[in-house]
Design goal:
The protein has eleven helices and no strands. The chain has about 210 residues and is mainly alpha-helical. The protein has one domain: Lysozyme, CATH 1.10.530. The chain is globular, with a radius of gyration of 20 Å.
Length: about 210
């Protein structure tokens, strides 16, 4: 019996190691420049299947809010926000009620998320990257950029984050998840939100 138990434990360990290696391999391929064939066969289905289940709902509200040409961007935002998991896949509670957790329905999350994106796109005067970053930072970011008579750039995103973080009375409410953001002392929001959404957008681009 003891030998059988050891064999079972060994097999289970092998399976766990194999699955961990597979997940690491997929993550590595996503982060590195790989061939289109590898991406389309392995990476894209692995990453986008759950998110694409929401495509009809996103299309519905995108049409309602007259941003139907931005469905790919909205899908990418879902990927960035949650990977399609949870009851609030667009993490849009804060834009609705000012705090996390007031939305507990994926459809309500998408309805509010699309509505908020459309609002940011209007304020950003059609600058998609600016609107996407404003989805994370808040509409005030678009106003900040336009008042400076500028377009979206990584530099101005960092500048805005630094400014907002510096002005915060209680800095402990902000979590600097990225090491780069800590180096810049730019812990308000995610300074690379727009960059990462645009990378994901490539996975959903209409053929």
């Amino acid at each position: 019996m003891k030998n059988n138990s050891l064999k079972i434990a060994f097999r289970v360990t092998l399976i766990v190691v194999f699955m961990a290696s597979l997940l690491y391999g997929v993550t590595y391929v996503v982060n590195e420049q790989s061939s289109p064939t590898i991406k389309s066969v392995l990476v894209e289905p692995f990453l986008t299947q759950k998110v694409k289940e929401y495509e009809p709902t996103i299309e519905k509200y995108a049409k309602e809010h007259e941003v139907e040409e931005h469905v790919d961007t909205l899908l990418a935002m879902v990927m960035q926000e949650s990977g399609g998991r949870g009851d609030d896949p667009m993490q849009s509670s804060e834009s609705l009620c000012g705090e996390i957790g007031c939305i507990d329905s994926p459809e309500e999350s998408i309805e509010q998320g699309v509505k908020y994106f459309a609002k940011n796109l209007e304020v950003a005067e059609g600058d998609v990257r600016l609107a996407v970053q404003s989805y994370n930072f808040g509409t005030g970011f678009s106003k900040y950029v336009l008042e400076k008579d500028e377009k979206f750039s990584q530099e101005i995103a960092i500048e805005f984050s630094q400014d907002m973080y510096d002005k915060a009375e209680d800095k402990s409410v902000y979590t600097c998840l990225r090491e780069e953001a800590k180096e810049f002392d730019a812990c308000y929001g995610d300074i690379y939100y727009s960059r990462d959404v645009m990378k994901y957008k490539e996975l959903f681009a209409k053929k």
